[in-house]
From TrEMBL:
Record's keyword annotation contains Transferase: no
Identification of the protein by name: Peptidyl-prolyl cis-trans isomerase
EC number of the protein: 5.2.1.8
Role description: Prolyl cis/trans isomerase with specificity for phospho-Ser-Pro bonds.
Organism: Actinidia chinensis var. chinensis
Residue ranges of domain PpiC in the record: 3-118
Keyword terms of this UniProt record: Isomerase, Rotamase
């Protein structure tokens, strides 16, 4: 039976416009509050380039740099269906083929790159 669920990992960089300005690596939110969206985008672009060029593994980059608690699992969010994630995140994930990495995706949480894993 085909499932309409997908599985994905992501890397999140939060910034001033993020809904929650704190994360596991910045509990006080000092860095996040001082980070512009442009700075977050340029940081995540650099991380994406390292992954795509093969210089770094997605899971390792997520574990080190992601502002999401999923960093502890190498960015793995597990499986989810439609309506469970913010719309731009969901649409980007469903548009990817397994193994593909998205361009930058903006949500209320911050800027992401997403790798579809299932």
């Amino acid at each position: 039976m085909p499932s309409d669920k997908v599985r994905a990992s992501h890397i999140l960089i939060k910034h001033q416009g993020s809904r929650r300005k704190a994360s596991w690596k910045d509990p006080e939110g000092r860095i996040i509050t001082a980070t512009t969206r442009e700075a977050a985008v340029s940081q995540i672009k650099g991380l994406r380039d390292d992954i795509v060029s093969g210089d770094a593994k997605f899971e390792d980059v997520a574990a080190r740099h992601s502002d999401c608690s999923s960093a502890k699992r190498g960015g793995d969010l597990g499986s989810f269906g439609k309506g469970q994630m913010q719309k731009p995140f969901e649409e980007a994930t469903y548009a990817l083929k397994v193994g593909e990495i998205s361009d930058i995706v903006d949500t209320d949480s911050g800027v992401h790159i997403i790798m579809r894993t299932g």
